[in-house]
Amino acid sequence: MKLALVGTGLIGSSVGLAAKHALGAEVSGWDPDPAALAGAAERGAIDRDAGSLADAVADAELAVVAAPVAQLPAQVVEVLRHSGDGCTVTDVGSTKGWIAGAEPSVRFVGGHPLAGSEAHGPAHARAELFEGATWFLTPSPTTDADRYRALHGFVSALGAIPVAVDPQAHDRILALTSHLPHALANLLLNQVGANRVEGHEPLAAAGGGLRDMTRIGGANPRIWVDIFLDNADSVRDALAEHRRRVEQLEAALDAGDAGFVARWIGEAGQNRRRLLTGAYGEAGQIHRLLVRIPDRPGVLSAITQALGAERINIEDFELRHDSPERGGAFTLMIAGEEQAQRAADLLESQGYAVDVSPLDES
Amino acid sequence: MKLALVGTGLIGSSVGLAAKHALGAEVSGWDPDPAALAGAAERGAIDRDAGSLADAVADAELAVVAAPVAQLPAQVVEVLRHSGDGCTVTDVGSTKGWIAGAEPSVRFVGGHPLAGSEAHGPAHARAELFEGATWFLTPSPTTDADRYRALHGFVSALGAIPVAVDPQAHDRILALTSHLPHALANLLLNQVGANRVEGHEPLAAAGGGLRDMTRIGGANPRIWVDIFLDNADSVRDALAEHRRRVEQLEAALDAGDAGFVARWIGEAGQNRRRLLTGAYGEAGQIHRLLVRIPDRPGVLSAITQALGAERINIEDFELRHDSPERGGAFTLMIAGEEQAQRAADLLESQGYAVDVSPLDES
User: Fold this and answer.
1) Containing structural domain, residue A347
2) Which CATH number belongs to the domain containing residue A218 in this structure?
3) Mean pLDDT of A82-99
4) Which residue, A101, A157, B33, B209, shows the most beta carbons closer than 10 Å to its own?
5) From the list A212, A238, A258, which residue is nearest B225 (CB)?
6) Are B16 and B154 found together in one domain?
7) How far is B272 from chain A (nearest CA, A)?
8) Considering CB atoms only, which of A197, A221, A311 is closest to B173?
């Protein structure tokens, strides 16, 4: 498999290492920063240090664009221009709203692995970075099923769990789960850092709680200024809701409302447990879902996004169009009887005819 | 040394283990909860399971009250009543404002170690819990110097760094460094937990950042309802300032102000580094500061709190009153020439005559 990395920082180089490890991929790389490119070669993340973006992607089967958010749209256009028809193009950007404004291509499917680190640069790249991580994919109504299947398989091979999502929904989810936490870490650091209490510097008296809560604070401004501005609308919505919740708490403290505070803490404890236990079903025997589908665009994205929203993990799938009149069949492989049945119920509730059967492994 | 623990949960039992380890203390313990008392005995944190609070403190030299915040004032009164004149009494409560409303006693000095854990109960107690931790002490104008010296030495022997602070200032510092972070963790959990985005549950797509930021969320309501309500004024001030900072950020995002966002992230990065590097001076040769003092109440608390605010670590001290006319001398031992000189400059700027000399170790 021929893989091209456009951008060889922490994420790009980790994709390279993971793909070489899992798939024996042959990896070419390019980065506008010569140091990042040299670092990726030294780390063993790329086999070939390409002289240009065009050279890197020329004969690739898959090109992964791992550039900072602000440069993504332009770089994806460049990669599509210089790569051949056989090349599928994806990215790993933290925001996906820009996809709506880009010219659609059947060869492009957006992506975003929820993996990262305080560290950055190829020196910190690891093949295991994506192990068990959610990897959002944004199939669109124009997405080609075979290309999506190849990308889905690639992401799974790297150890990640592909979850299909609409680009706008992706950005609203990330505003809540990543950008709001980053904002709160920064706000907290700057408030505690700016205060003096009768000569004491509160920052010097910080316990482990404040240290944990600010681990993600002050993250690389080269990356985060763009993320905050690129996703400004969703981040502002999240901040406004946060402010309303702060006001509620202030009112409860003002009223000495112990009941409110106790319920509020209890709810947080429940949410913390939900966060830690995750929502994945147990693995189990693979089941085949045969779904009759109409021959119209958007079926792939509609079905994968619906299952993604329920965090039903698709192991593999096949999309077959029989004819415009008779439509076709979408075959999905799903691990575990319970999860397969949930998937079937969900799709039936959306009007599809679904047939479930255990895949005979004998 | 005879130590009494009134309250044998995580903190109380850890004090017992640390005192036995560092000082060979003989520890009696009492807790209204029989399970906590039995747990402390099992963990080896107490030598004697006292039948009552009165029995536990009867012949103690130091009594440490480690009760939940709401029960502290009443338990301290009980402990003072049942202990002898030779017994110094302290507590480990997370708020100190209640001290202003309590009847003053020369035998009582408030305390608060910045150590804790997600875990609670004596089973999780550890002798090393206080190693390197700030341990706030609240000497008052009526505090007896010998008792304060003994408590200061006790806390140091447990591995903690005693920092003198005014009780009200303590609560404002903790509102910023502990109660606000706890509140934000809970607010974040409840906001992310309450949202659904096109069928997706954002909590299920949480990355490591959200996990870190909510580690302290949903903490034991039995403890935290009281802390929030007991320190409601300072917490509300901190929340109101936080809200103003959120509004600033919203305005910057609204205006697409990349400069503001970059400066704001940069400032957070600086504050994060300050938090991690801490403000402690290097250890070094012990220096003796001889401070001439007037014979008036409050000198001990004034000097120790002033040095605490600058995080100048006092290794040991002696307070000697010569006469009402001539006043007396306060001798302080401080590690490191640079730190000793900072202490001397600070006290001279407050009108004291100070003499610094290296302590000859030969």
Assistant:
1) 286-358
2) 1.10.3660.10
3) 94
4) B209
5) A258
6) yes
7) 7
8) A197
Q: What is the CA radius of gyration of chain A?
A: 23
Count how many domains chain B has. 3
Assign A26 to helix, strand or coil: strand
| A107 and A253, same domain (yes or no) | no
A197 to B115: CB separation less than 8 angstroms, yes or no = no
Same domain as A240, residue A220: yes
DSSP B137: E
Give B283-338 pLDDT, tens digit per residue: 578 888 989 888 777 888 889 888 888 888 888 888 887 777 777 888 898 888 88
Determine the distance in angstroms separating the CA of A140 from the nearest CA of chain B, rounded to an integer. Answer: 15
If asked whether residues A92 and A9 sit together in one domain, one would say yes
Tell if the CB–CB gap between A266 and B133 is shorter than 8 Å: no
Instruction: State how far residue A347 is from chain B, nearest Cα, in angstroms.
Output: 14
On whether both A253 and A149 belong to a single domain, the answer is no
Is residue A61 domain-shared with residue A11, that is, in the same domain?
yes
Distance from C-alpha of A119 to C-alpha of A140, rounded to nearest angstrom? 32
- The ipTM (two decimal places) reads 0.80
pTM of the model: 0.80
| Angle between helix B299-309 and helix B337-349 axes, rounded to 10 deg | 130
Contact A311 B249 (CB under 8 A): no
Q: Is residue B281 part of a domain?
A: no
Please list every residue in chain B whose beta carbon sits closer than 8 Å to the beta carbon of residue A197: 169, 172-173, 176
Select from B319, B321, B345 the least CA-distant residue to B333: B319
- Determine the distance in angstroms separating the CA of A360 from the nearest CA of chain B, rounded to an integer: 31
Residues B156 and B44 in one domain: yes
Check: CB of residue A127 under 8 Å from CB of residue A10. Answer: no
| B192 plus B209 within the same structural domain | yes
Element at B304 (helix H, strand E): helix B299-309
